[in-house]
């Protein structure tokens, strides 16, 4: 028999292996494993438990546990949805590839190494971060945590910049951990209330807790960051200039201001889909990327989580809900012959009511029911 070609399953690529990206694979794999492969592309060697990082500034000894290896068992949760006795399992159609996507083209993504990987559907879950500063492997990540711990331990006067979840939790842990609780800590936030993306009552709760912990709070003022950064680690006090001309003294400054959306790889495919001011990726309610005019030029490309401009607050819970919408939409498009989504009714994401599980010290936390 001549001309026979074995069936090769096309790829669905998910870029970004943090909480939302891995959830995307867990949800999608049971739906499409018989017809598609799913490739998760992640630049870091290990899954990083971002929720542990604030505490790792003050508490030592468990930093290695914040870095979880990507193994063959990573997506076995998807297998639980398939009937026992099945010859193939969803996890068998998943693959984790370490690499950094530098550009996206209509039918393939290109890695920093030059490797090009084809896709039929693409989901961007790249999140936010500070380009060039993240630890790419476990060893470097542990060393970074230990460096932060050493600086906090030596410091006497600490200024934390940023009153979002990361800054609030970091300060609360420093002031409630026995080895660091006697540090003089000031939190500076540019808005007039802490946790300003949530209900105003959350500010009141956090403020009350900060009084208990003896945390100094400066609101409505910005810290002027020197071009060469702050002279941390020298064991000497220095002046920190505020936007109104006032100043603070500290021997350690920890920046917890909002990181930038990691949307730059999309510039090669659809630059108009990136908001030039915020750098978030524009999306339709279906979570398909769109241009500034709202046009969907690439219906097979989606964005979810912190990198997507959905109107929702940036957290894992809304990202999970977005992943559910995208999984259903990709399944619908695959079932439609040729994957043509025109005149196909796709699911839409309705943004979640802002809520958060917020740590307010080593043994104190706040559940979403109180936010």
Automatic annotation (TrEMBL):
<dbReference type="Pfam" id="PF07992">
    <property type="entry name" value="Pyr_redox_2"/>
</dbReference>
<dbReference type="GO" id="GO:0050660">
    <property type="term" value="F:flavin adenine dinucleotide binding"/>
</dbReference>
<feature type="domain" description="FAD/NAD(P)-binding">
    <location>
        <begin position="11"/>
        <end position="315"/>
    </location>
</feature>
<dbReference type="InterPro" id="IPR036188">
    <property type="entry name" value="FAD/NAD-bd_sf"/>
</dbReference>
<protein>
    <submittedName>
        <fullName>FAD/NAD(P)-binding domain-containing protein</fullName>
    </submittedName>
</protein>
<dbReference type="GO" id="GO:0005737">
    <property type="term" value="C:cytoplasm"/>
</dbReference>
<dbReference type="GO" id="GO:0004174">
    <property type="term" value="F:electron-transferring-flavoprotein dehydrogenase activity"/>
</dbReference>
<dbReference type="InterPro" id="IPR023753">
    <property type="entry name" value="FAD/NAD-binding_dom"/>
</dbReference>
